């Protein structure tokens, strides 16, 4: 089974128009509509009645959910896609598969999280039973937050004031995120295919402070509440008001299925993924996202999987999926994230300062200082600096960042003076020169990061 392969991410609308027609017939996965975003390629089954949307990472074809096909054809289309990938030297995996796929396709799968689902007909009961949710909605109303559904024409017109306001909100929201923007299934294009979607804006005195885009899940007559954006300065309850409006609209239009999408690494995931969740907390608040979705009291939590053919292991499939989200190199994405969030580096420097200070206090390092008094002066200085940095990491204050930036700048200057007058003449090996360089560059780098982090500002309104 060779199938037909769209070799490049399509620039013309023809392949997407064909995919849209298939989605209207077979789009069952919550994420299915997202495959119309730029960057996806499509493998079409020879029969013309099914396709797989994927991204090519260079080593693998990472499919966005299950194949878009009739349920009874899932296994056959999956195998055709795997054979086509193998013919060009690519691995395959399927990201965000739901239980229906696992029941019909014999393929190993790794749980990567859960997604909440509702029957919106019950939404009024949910609100009545949740005092916390009612209070958030009340707070938003008290602050003048109003929510309205936005006609597709407003978002589809680049010159419309609503479209421009949403784009500015998007910029402010992205600037407040900890990680660099990602691709694959989390692209943020709220105006794409506006005529097929629903959208809601939250406003205060006519200014847009929140936005929610809704994608159709055609085969389930449902909605995926996809992009939920809240201005960093929006009143409390803004996000809840948007979800409330969408749920009520879904119920009134006869929808029977609504989801807020994947809560990554939630639920019964494997131990090494739980460890990744804990280690990734500085970059992404996994627990906070699940808690936010849980406050709306879903009818059920559906497990979401990463499926991959044997004999590949789950770790290799996770690597391929991460590359799809990073839009290529994980190293490049990591560097972009660190440059975007220098405060993460401030945290790293605070951690590294602990063993550095301990080394300075050792008797064996006395040769690096003109006297014991100078050695312990540096030790005490670094202890105070460590305490200050960890206090700053715990709760950021621009005033403290300014003080610590000045102290680390002074540290760099004094270290440079000591290095030139005392350490350089005594240096006799490459290791000595490396230690001198680290001693001078580390505080200078920390000072720069502190001042840059202090001066970070969100885009204006």
TrEMBL record:
Topology versus the membrane: Multi-pass membrane protein
Record GO terms (molecular function): aminoacyltransferase activity
Keywords noted in UniProt: Cell membrane, Membrane, Transmembrane, Transmembrane helix
Localization: Cell membrane
Keyword Membrane on entry: yes
Biological process terms in GO annotation: phospholipid homeostasis
Segment forming the signal sequence: none
GO cellular component: plasma membrane
One Pfam family this sequence matches: LPG_synthase_C
Domain Phosphatidylglycerol lysyltransferase C-terminal: 21-303
Annotated transmembrane regions: 344-362, 374-393, 400-421, 433-452
Cited CDD domains: NAT_SF
Name listed for the protein in its UniProt record: Phosphatidylglycerol lysyltransferase C-terminal domain-containing protein
Lineage, opening ranks: Bacteria, Pseudomonadati, Myxococcota, Myxococcia, Myxococcales
